[in-house]
Amino acid sequence: MMIYLNNTPLDEVLGGFLKELGDYRFNSIETISVIDGLDRVLAENIFAKRSVPHYHSSAMDGYQVRAEDTKTANIDNPIFLSMEKIKYCDTGEPIEPQFDSVIKIEDVHKRDNGIEIIGGATKWQNIRPIGEDITAHDLLFTTGRKLQPMDIAALIASGIYQIKVFKKPKVAIIPTGDEIIPWNKEPMIGEIPDSNSQLFANMVKKWGGEPTVYPITPDNFDLLEKVVKNAWEENDLILVNAGSSAGSEDYTSKVINHLGKVYYHGVAIKPGKPAIFGKIGKKPVIGVPGYPVSAFVVMEELVKKVFLYLKGEKVPERKKVEGKLTKPVNSDLKFQEYVRVKVGKIGKEYVITPLARGAALMSTVTQGDGFLIIPQNSEGYRAGEMVQVELFTEKDFDNTFVSIGSHDLALDILATHLAPKFNLSSAHVGSLGGIMAVKKGETHFAGIHLLDPQTGQYNISYVKKYLKGTGAVLIHLAKRTQGLMVAKGNPLNIKSIKDLKGRTIANRQKGAGTRVLLDYLMEKENIKPEEVEGYTREFFTHLAVAQEVKSGRADAAMGIYAATKGMDLHFVPLYQESYDLIVSPEFYYSPNFKSILEVLSSEKFRREVEELGGYNLDKSGEIIFVEGEKN
Ligand SMILES: Nc1nc2c(c(=O)[nH]1)N[C@H]1C(S)=C(S)[C@@H](COP(=O)(O)OP(=O)(O)OC[C@H]3O[C@@H](n4cnc5c(N)ncnc54)[C@H](O)[C@@H]3O)O[C@H]1N2
Ligand code: MOO
Questions:
Q1: C-alpha angle 450/448/465, rounded to 5°?
Q2: What is the pLDDT of residue 2?
Q3: Where do the MoaB/Mog domain residues begin and end (predicted)?
Q4: Which ligand is the nearest neighbour of the Cα of 336?
Q5: Which ligand is nearest to the Cα of residue 214, counting in written order?
Q6: So what's the ipTM on this one?
Q7: Per-residue pLDDT tens digits for 32-47
Q8: What CATH number does domain 320-395 carry, 3.90.1150.10, 3.40.1000.70, 3.30.450.20, 2.40.340.10?
Q9: Distance from the alpha carbon of residue 250 to the mean position of ligand 1, in angstroms
Q10: Given ligand 1 and candidates 291, 332, 365, which is best to mutate, with the most ligand atoms within 8 Å of its CB?
């Protein structure tokens, strides 16, 4: 198998490829009705055919008069004008040739057979003369104008009904892969619904193109070649999705090379490195990697730029914000990396939290706000460094609450109650991580559930210990039942912590409240970590450990009852814990926090959470403890 994948820097690929495209441009023209012109780009200069208004018209409801007749009127010498010397008109009505002025209706006294006025009118007052707005033969728009709603209104008013615009460039989208199935078919194991084609189609539409999604093509050279040939004839730009990397079934570059030429295969970006740039005849054919985020990055950073260049448009710059990085980000020196991040605004400062790096993780784009772009040859950034983020969302950060800490399903339900007025942006780092985030001013609040083994009490001693000097308000959210998740029917008869000896568990990460609880209970029963298989394998959520038990890879896992629901697992209740929110004092006293408190104490919210099972929210929203503020 021949593997050929270079690692060319992005700018070099883009610059070089545009050069290879020579004089090829998307410049076909079509004539359309002006009413279909929204967001279309004019391919002609347009001059008005008609003046607006096209007759002298009244600007007010009132009486048309001759200014001459009104000259001597004043408050002491009112003038009476008989019906022959005036004419009533509404706003917009034509001015008759014998008149040259309009007096507003509220400035006249109606008398029998005429009006009385107490002030003179000046010539052309309250009249919109011909061409006041647009004059016939005025230049309205030049080639290249992207038509907006008022543009279309002005064109119609000035007598333009047909316009010449650039044709929407046609973009072929060819999904490939034996495992890919139509987007609306329920997938079996090993099958992947074609979600990328819709990602591409909608991006192309946003850029002003006309996408066509071709049928899914299996991994087969001849079939792919046939579809590419076909698409090449019918389109201006061809995108082949997947089959771009080094695997033996990756035919995209072979097909392009057979029909035309590949100029670049492999870009020094991550994700997105196996992208392919080639040409068949004069038309560009681009191989976009299969992983959704790799695909998104290649579409945003390369395909969009090629597309808009060929369309003769500038690439709009992304909005940028600068903020403090909450976690270190390491980067491979070989690539320019696109790390998806969440952005939060705490007080006046932005905080930037990096998300997971996997190229398959669409959720890092849907949950993320922007890219932290780490240049090639950079090792990355340290926690606390100020970094710049290029935004891909339009979120209102002033109405986004940041929650960094332990995850609980109640937070998801809280988010549904806060929407659409407020967003809740959560990151799950465990209880201790949450406390540290509050301490460093990186979050508005943190969910925690930390047992103090000495006192048997939850959370308070940790707040006292770690947030002394910082200040914090501890608000109760829920009592929830922790226990052991085991297989349906409890075949191993696991009834208490003691029964974990010699069994395999799925454990939570250090710093997680559930881990602290397990350690506490194990110590009480004198069980050493070495006596429990899997103790060192860490998972970050309740659902993740539940999944391990469900799959049979683990015999048991400590977690909350609600996570077992829907998974058909057995639950052995062991402990009632208190899941609370630590709120920074600044946020606690801000008006926005009231909205959270309102939800916490609402019946509807409490009921919805309790319905998950294993929860009691009788006291949610109550203050448990206040740690003094900074002085
Ligand atoms: N041995 C190597 N394997 C891989 C390499 C490598 O260098 N050596 N590169 C990896 C990188 S990086 C990427 S990115 C991917 C690129 O893969 P391909 O473009 O060849 O695409 P596939 O392997 O066919 O699929 C990858 C992944 O994407 C899913 N996919 C594909 N099409 C769609 C679609 N239309 N909708 C949704 N999802 C789609 C596909 O099912 C796979 O899961 O290769 C790595 N491997
Ligand atoms: O380039 Mo791949 O897209 O790194 O994941």
A1: 60
A2: 45
A3: 172-310
A4: 2
A5: 1
A6: 0.97
A7: 999 999 999 999 999 9
A8: 2.40.340.10
A9: 9
A10: 291
